[in-house]
Amino acid sequence: MNIPKAPNDFKSFLTKIHAEFNQRNLAPIDRKIYNGETPLKMPDTLKANEMRLHLGKTVDYEQEDLIVEFENNESHLLVVSQDLNARIALMKLLFQNIKSANKELVFCNKEKRLIRSFDAQKEYGITPVENVLSVLDTAMNPNSALVIDNLNESKELHDKVGAEKLKSFLEKAIDNEQYCVIFAHDFRQIKTNYHFDKLKELLNNHFKQCLAFRCNGENLNAIKSDLPSPSKLNALFIELSKDSHTEFRPFSLQD
Hints:
The protein is of the alpha/beta class. The protein contains nine helices and ten strands. The model has no long low-confidence stretch (mean pLDDT 89).
């Protein structure tokens, strides 16, 4: 056994105190052991409610719950990942949270690849809507969640009219126990396109919570400069209003 930065006789010391511990018949102390190489199994009961998501555990000794709260009209959630399988995994986790909270889900899907890989109708009984404007033009029920995948393909939101309609919904949503989650696969494209001024203004003002999972450096930098790149199984939760980020491991729906 090699213990980095430990004296050579440290192994014998550990053996000695372990033997003394056993001789005293002391009760073992429950310690958390963090395993950085395995997926994190979803608990039987999520700590989700009408206005919060329970997405995983922080990557540290304490392993605290990673909770996303929708507290005001600035706190809607942007999810960025160029990896389709990662987006599907997060989408399923999100849907499970919404289901646990008995919240109505409105799912707008524009990406054909996702439809081929993820049958929302079969798995969750949800019929995806293709045009988000048709949803925004019709008043959504209170206590509902609007999920859009993805922003790059939802061209109806790229112009002033679409952005204004979404903005109007976002400003009133929290009062009606509603929130919005938008997925994007290429956030750099959105941030660098000078035609998207209204959309970028909307994102800056209303999506101050971001989640990055399996992102390349360009996508991370588009969210915020100098963000660290998490390991493959981990994600970053970024709170732009607090200038903070937290690395966490999302729950896995796989056994």
